[in-house]
Every structure is written in structure tokens, then in C-alpha cells.
Design brief:
By secondary structure, the chain is of the alpha+beta class. The protein is 34% helix and 13% strand. The chain contains three helices and two strands, in the order H-E-E-H-H. Strands 1-2 form a two-stranded antiparallel ribbon. Strand 1 and strand 2 form a beta hairpin. The radius of gyration is 27 Å and the shape is elongated.
Length: 94
């Protein structure tokens, strides 16, 4: 069992002592949930942040990923078509 002490600042903040952070594997950006029990004891739960690499494939899609070159060409084509339509409608191009 690890015992450590922290002081509440004037802004109501506390710092988790290094030995506690190390013991629970807490990193910068992780979240801590505070649960106050009926007997006024506080339980802390660590919620680890997700790394971008862990999110790959999280959203399933039936749409095939296009290459950057294909996406660039499609965007150029859409942009040119909009300009041509505006010009054909007699709108000012400037």
C-alpha cells in the first residue's frame, strides 16, 4: 500500500504525488474521476487517454478510402465546376 500527501491550493487544486502517478500509470492528459462515498471517503478512478494509433478502425465505413491524389483531383474538379456554373449564370467571378 502506498501513502502520499498533497495539499489543496487556493484554487482548490491538488497534485497527485509522483509515487501515486507512477503506481497507477497516470500520464499527462489522462482523466481522474472522483467518487465520494457515503462515509465521505474518496475513490479516484483513472481514465487513460486514447492514443491516435488506438483509434484506427474505430469508425467502420463501407466507403473505400481514396488516395490523396484522387481526393485532390476530385476537389479541383468540384471547384472548377462551381466556377464554370457561376460564370454560365452570369455571376461575377471576382
Amino acid at each position: 500500500m502506498i501513502h502520499a500527501t498533497s495539499t489543496i491550493t487556493g484554487k482548490g487544486q491538488i497534485q497527485l504525488p509522483a509515487e501515486i502517478r507512477k503506481a497507477i500509470g497516470a500520464d499527462i492528459g489522462d482523466n481522474v474521476i472522483f467518487i465520494v462515498q457515503d462515509n465521505k471517503e474518496i475513490v479516484l478512478k483513472l481514465i487513460k487517454k486514447k492514443k491516435l494509433s488506438q483509434l484506427g478502425g474505430a469508425l467502420k465505413s463501407q466507403v473505400k478510402f481514396k488516395s490523396i491524389d484522387e481526393e485532390t483531383e476530385n476537389t479541383k474538379e468540384i471547384w472548377v465546376n462551381k466556377r464554370v456554373r457561376r460564370n454560365n449564370n452570369g455571376e461575377n467571378m471576382d
